[in-house]
Design a protein that fits this description.
single chain; 363 residues; 10 helices; globular
Length: 363
């Protein structure tokens, strides 16, 4: 890479390390924060209180803090850009994955070949199969996956994984059809089929973004993997358990949740698949603005995916917006619309959903 990485205007290398220019900017920002800390540490007046003292200025070599914004001339980005291009090309030649995928080849192609770091929204009407789809994606993404459940219990999700991987009707796992030994055999099939899938149960208490990050880092480290996929079911259920929600309502709670997701993705350098509820006006039709409660859900997303069940047509062939029932094979038509995509194409992907096996497939 040395022969393709030119020096910047100051004659320093642009291979991803902080340049003189970048360091000057970081020093300036750090000094501004030190001045602000001094102001905050000054007495507030008679009857006021004092905060902790500002951090002292030392003669130690300056290391730009990771939480400072970076000022980057385009030339400083060239090294990282070429490194990523080289890795992308090598992966294309070898067939290796460069990051988590959906496991549906046609959909992955239009998404740009993988889930990019950032959060990705999947919304659908109630009963459309969002959780089943996200759980299947987590199991077949090609990397460790952490599924954070704020709605269904971990045991209920495990049953869904067993149903899909062991080709066993979901209701038969609940109605006493199978003995303990029979269920154990099917459960072992699921465990062997999904060795990189873990569940984080957040149904009983609010789990913070820092706790999610710690769990993700631990799970990724266990598999010695470079990448990980996080799934959150759902952002609305997660926000409703936060202290901010009880203080500022749904809008404030969702805004805080989106900020936490953006920070979490940046710290992990990982994609997060976020399930979202729809607003009532868009419950049947979907669309890019269909997520309920806060416009930042779609505006900050890398992609927005809309899951829709096939609907019944009226006598005049107009859409009734009423979902079709399952056919004799237990399947129903569905489609995933890519409503927003920062990394590839849009479009509509036809799917089949088998409810009793909790399994999606490309039609």
């Amino acid at each position: 890479m040395d022969n393709t990485t030119p020096p910047d205007a100051d004659g320093t290398s642009a291979a991803g390390e902080p340049t003189d220019w970048d360091t000057q900017w970081a020093e300036l920002m750090a000094e501004r924060r030190r001045r602000q800390a001094r102001q905050n540490s000054a007495p507030t007046g008679e009857g006021g209180s004092e905060t902790d003292e500002a951090p002292p200025i030392t003669d130690e070599p300056f290391a730009p803090p990771k939480d400072l914004p970076r000022l980057l001339p385009l030339g400083d980005l060239l090294g990282d850009l070429l490194d990523e291009a080289e890795a992308d090309h090598a992966a294309k030649l070898s067939g290796d994955l460069r990051g988590p995928v959906t496991g549906f080849p046609e959909l992955d192609r239009d998404l740009g070949g993988r889930f990019m770091p950032g959060y990705h929204v999947l919304h659908g009407n109630t009963g459309s199969g969002k959780t089943g789809l996200a759980l299947q994606i987590a199991a077949q993404c090609g990397f460790p996956a952490l599924f954070v459940t704020c709605e269904m219990s971990a045991i209920e999700l495990f049953r869904r994984v067993i149903s899909r991987t062991a080709s066993t009707f979901l209701h038969d796992l609940k109605n006493g059809t199978f003995t303990r030994d029979a269920v154990a055999e099917k459960a072992c099939t699921a465990v062997k089929a999904c060795p990189q899938l873990a569940l984080l149960d957040a149904t009983r208490t609010h789990v913070t973004a820092d706790e999610i990050r710690a769990a993700a880092e631990l799970w990724r480290k266990r598999h010695q993997a470079k990448h990980i996929l996080l799934c959150l079911d759902s952002v609305h259920a997660w926000a409703r358990t936060s202290p901010i929600f009880h203080e500022d309502g749904e809008y404030g709670g969702l805004g805080e949740a989106i900020r936490d997701l953006q920070r979490l993705s940046a710290e992990l350098v990982a994609p997060i698949l976020v399930l979202a509820e729809r607003n009532r006006a868009s419950a049947a039709g979907g669309g890019v603005n269909a997520s309920a409660g806060h416009r930042a859900i779609e505006y900050g997303a890398e992609t927005v995916l809309s899951l829709n069940r096939e609907t019944i047509k009226g006598k005049d062939n107009k859409d009734t917006h009423r979902p079709k029932g399952f056919d004799a094979a237990g399947e129903v038509g569905a489609h995933i619309s890519i409503e927003k995509n920062r990394h590839g194409a849009g479009g509509r992907h036809e799917m089949k959903f088998c409810g009793r096996l909790q399994k999606f497939s490309e039609a």
